[in-house]
Specification:
Structural class: alpha/beta
Shape: extended
Strand order of the largest sheet: 1-2-3-4-5-6-7-8
Order of helices and strands: HHHHEEEEEHEHEEH
Number of strands: 8
Largest sheet: 8 strands, mixed
Distance between the termini: 32 Å
Radius of gyration: 29 Å
Low-confidence stretches: 35-46
Number of helices: 7
Length: 322
């Protein structure tokens, strides 16, 4: 599917909210128009249930029993299990637009999504949106629910934040943009408190950001920022990279998945006021420990001087990507 809405429809089909044992089918005794048998029962027995109908309790057992053919796999989210149980106990709540009101977390991973369409606005209670490992290159913020608190766009092709920052969700607390195509300094201006007043966690890992002082000047406006991931960017190769960030962002608690302790902050105290120590260059030493599949020169006898014979030469090219 090319859009998030199309991927969500596939997601609903996967859940089978309208199929047995869920939904308003004739098998569900709790449906509003379910037929009730008025035939008298022997003493001590309750109301008769027609053979084609099941009680909600029996249908729930089919969903919860891990040996049942209708059970969800163990890795499914709590929300998926909740939606299926609601589809048994109160299936009318998930009919039509009702299902959009019930979804608070939407995770669509590796489904070939290219467009974040305006159909997302139907999710009026959505708080978490994870669209990682797709083919998204641009996000229009006007298509994002204002209730979002978590937005994850890792492993996509996002190279421009202008559309995302036009009307960003005001309550967003986590923004994940790792493994994309961001490069500064044109994108760094979108990472300020003017766009993200409540941001607590930011993942910019494995992009192409190079201007450490410029990026820090923007990030320093995010007063609520506590978690930052920048590893994998060229700027992370700068020798004073970690120390400069630790001293420049005093409220930061975790940098590149490593906790910032008090002694480390004291160690780098004052480094932020010495920008001359930041060099926009780095030296990388690569050591090759072992190479397989190459011919052993000692296995070949050297030709005598003046002897005629074939001469075989080998050349190799080693490429590094940063």
């Amino acid at each position: 599917p090319a859009s998030v809405s199309a991927a969500f429809q596939e997601y609903l089909q996967h859940l089978g909210l309208q199929d047995f044992p869920c939904g308003l089918g004739s098998w569900n005794k709790s449906r509003p128009n379910a037929r009730r048998s008025r035939r008298a029962e022997p003493a001590g027995l309750g109301e008769a249930v027609p053979p084609a109908e099941e009680t909600p309790e029996a249908l729930l057992d089919l969903l919860r029993d891990r040996h049942s053919p209708w059970a969800l796999p163990p890795e499914c989210s709590p929300q998926e299990r909740l939606l299926r149980e609601v589809a048994v106990l109160a299936p009318e709540l998930l009919r039509g637009s009702g299902v959009f009101q019930a979804v608070r977390s939407l995770r669509i991973l590796d489904k070939g999504v290219e467009e974040v369409d305006k159909g997302l606005l139907r999710f009026q209670q959505l708080e978490e949106l994870v669209l990682s490992a797709n083919h998204i290159s641009r996000v229009t913020s006007a298509h994002l629910p204002r209730t979002l608190k978590v937005l994850e766009l890792c492993y996509n092709a996002v190279g421009d934040l202008q559309g995302l920052c036009a009307q960003p969700p005001p309550e967003l607390q986590h923004l994940g943009l790792g493994y994309n195509r961001l490069c500064g300094p044109s994108q760094e201006k979108h990472l300020t408190v003017d766009f993200w007043p409540n941001l607590v966690s930011l993942d910019l890992s494995f992009n192409s950001l190079t201007d450490l002082p410029g990026l820090v000047s923007q990030l320093s406006t995010l007063q609520n920022l506590r978690i930052l991931v920048l590893q994998g960017n060229p700027l992370a190769l700068i020798p004073s990279y970690r120390g400069f960030l630790v001293d420049s962002l005093p409220k930061l608690c975790i940098l590149d998945d490593i906790h910032i302790w008090v002694d480390e902050r004291q160690q780098f105290h004052g480094l932020a006021r010495q920008p001359e120590l930041i060099r926009c260059e780095a030296r990388v030493v690569v050591s090759i420990g072992e190479m397989k599949g190459l011919p052993d020169p000692e296995a070949y006898q050297q030709l005598e001087v003046g002897a005629e014979g074939p001469v075989i030469t080998y050349s190799y090219c080693v490429t590094y990507e940063f």
